Task: inverse folding
């Protein structure tokens, strides 16, 4: 699935290699899912731009050496990043979601125009933007086409696809609209990442965490949690505390043996009923979103869960950014791409 565009501009940018690596910034960084993927792919971090204070603290806690710019991207001057190799980001999705009333360009939270401004000022060689799959629907065909035409005007060839995170080893569907734009001649070298991975089930992904406090029902629960999860829902500051989504999603979680009405402080203990319905903890949610176990989230439970649920799963970010890096670096794409696997799989043995 792709909208076509024709390159019609002159380009001046060339990859700015630091040793054998290329540079990247990410906007609307959140809790760092995309940044982790960019790092794992081999890009050198040059900046993360994020307005949420807790998310910025998360980035600083985990990567003290990173340049974290706390503030609205509307106040950022893209000229400060002139010559960057890759600008990546996931601008707010409510303008394209049913819950956000799908107002598109009429929504004050629509930051695609600001992303385009930064791209025009910074002139990266490549761009990677992601959003909810709603942006791929017919309702937003005109909006999507205008976005592509603007990138075309700036000298980029554009491709987009809806990618399911489960295809990259993430134990939930988590479909995302992903747009990749590259300057000539690198666009012809770009190929979407291919994978034949089988994602872990919920039981495989978090069974060790679910049984970590001696719950005697964990083995039966593990057998029940035998498929990938529904898509985690991060929510926004306009809503209440953390939960795993609307009624339909909660029913799907219940079928997997999970109470989707909230997030627990601790895994179930020895006194938890054998046939009880446990809730996820933040660590479990982070594992399902494919964050490494070593990644620490700042802020209270609600703030941390929003960072987790709204993040781009690192394996998906890594796979696409590796494909971009391959195109920019002029390397031949490997038949067996590197796979980011943070899971510690639970065993009944």
Result:
């Amino acid at each position: 699935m792709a909208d076509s565009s024709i390159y019609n501009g002159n380009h001046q940018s060339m990859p700015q290699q630091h040793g054998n690596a290329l540079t990247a910034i990410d906007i609307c960084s959140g809790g760092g899912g995309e940044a982790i993927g960019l790092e794992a792919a081999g890009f050198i971090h040059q900046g993360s731009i994020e307005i949420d204070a807790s998310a910025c603290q998360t980035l600083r806690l985990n990567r003290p050496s990173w340049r974290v710019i706390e503030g609205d991207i509307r106040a950022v001057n893209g000229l400060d990043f002139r010559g960057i190799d890759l600008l990546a980001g996931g601008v707010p999705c409510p303008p394209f979601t049913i819950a956000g009333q799908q107002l598109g360009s009429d929504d004050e939270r629509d930051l695609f125009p600001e992303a385009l401004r930064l791209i025009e000022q910074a002139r990266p060689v490549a761009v990677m933007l992601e959003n909810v799959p709603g942006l791929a629907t017919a309702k937003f065909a005109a909006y999507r086409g205008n976005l592509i035409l603007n990138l075309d005007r700036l000298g980029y060839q554009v491709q987009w696809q809806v990618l399911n995170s489960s295809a990259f080893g993430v134990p939930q569907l988590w479909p995302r609209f992903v747009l990749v734009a590259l300057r000539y001649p690198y666009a012809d070298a770009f190929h979407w990442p291919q994978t034949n991975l089988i994602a872990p089930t919920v039981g495989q992904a978090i069974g060790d965490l679910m049984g970590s406090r001696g719950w005697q029902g964990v083995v039966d629960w593990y057998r029940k949690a035998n498929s990938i999860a529904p898509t985690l829902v991060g929510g926004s500051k306009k809503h209440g505390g953390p939960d795993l989504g609307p009624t339909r999603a909660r029913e799907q979680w219940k079928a997997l043996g999970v109470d989707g009405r909230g997030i627990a402080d601790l895994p179930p203990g020895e006194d938890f009923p054998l046939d009880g319905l446990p809730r996820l903890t933040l660590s479990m949610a982070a594992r399902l979103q494919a964050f490494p176990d070593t990644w620490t989230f700042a802020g209270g439970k609600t703030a941390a869960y929003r960072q987790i649920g709204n993040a781009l799963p690192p394996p998906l970010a890594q796979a696409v950014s590796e494909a971009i890096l391959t195109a920019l670096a002029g390397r031949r794409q490997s038949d067996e791409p590197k796979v980011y696997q943070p899971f510690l799989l639970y065993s009944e043995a």
In short: Residues 1-14, 93-109, 342-349 have pLDDT under 50 and may be disordered. DSSP finds ten helices and seven strands in the chain. The first strand starts at residue 23 and ends at 27. Strands lie at 23-27, 44-50, 68-70, 86-89, 126-131, 156-164, 175-183.
